[in-house]
Write a structure and sequence with these properties.
295 residues, 2 domains, four-stranded antiparallel β-sheet, 39% strand, globular
Length: 295
Amino acid sequence: MVAALAVACCAACSGSHHKDRVYGALTARLGESLAVLGWNTLMSNLGWQDNYVLVDVDAAPTDPAKAHADPRDVQFGLYGALAHPMEATGIGSCENERNLKSSVIQALSAPEGKRLTGTVCLGRLSDRSAVRGVYLYSPRDRIADTAAAYPAAFPVGLLPTKENDTGLVVKTTSVAAWRADGTQLTQASLGDPSAFSGSGYMLLGLDADTIAAKYRDDSAARGGPMMLLAAPTLPPLGLSPACSAYGSSVLILPEASLDAVHVSASLCTQGDINEALLYATIAVVGTHAAVWTTQ
């Protein structure tokens, strides 16, 4: 891991190398530091193992006396020309694969909540050329007066949203739901009262689209990109490995050189089966974020 001294050095010397923001997200090269979510954060040493991206993180509160994001909420994702977003909560991200658990010397942790240090694992991904960097954000960090929430009930999901609401058109591309015991539900299940008892979960395929230039201007004015949040949800590990894999949030941060914003993601709602399936919501919310690029 990069020593703490490197954080201080990079914080002092790297500011002049920071790039223009990517859709409102703070931007730096790997090996430089940024102040985001109340943390002075350095990302470095991006590498690959078993089709996972590994990146080292070293962060300390910008001001210990002021609020900063809970380390357990910090979400990391791969930035680049990916077919679909690939994200993970930093703490615990290296636990999914036995080979990673045994070979990563120090997985990301937050000793006493005063530091965020260790390795983040993101994958699986075989196309290494698609990765341009790594971003971070917190689903709990929300820019005021930017949120819009929509019903996404089984079996219809989310109807196409109005672009004037948030600057994005978000719609459902697929809906699948299960009881906690693994029984898959269909539209015919709506007529069976016993099907909707206990716990359950739903996977929603979602597309988010807009014109890149418009999203760039909107994000700059807002102070950050948008994210999608699915509710309700449960803490890891949740009710299904699929929910752990897809999560309940995704940052809308496509590669900046593309002419159009088009993000295809899958999100999970889970918990009480009635809440998770019949009263599910998708929120579109602005947030603060940062991205570290390879060049």
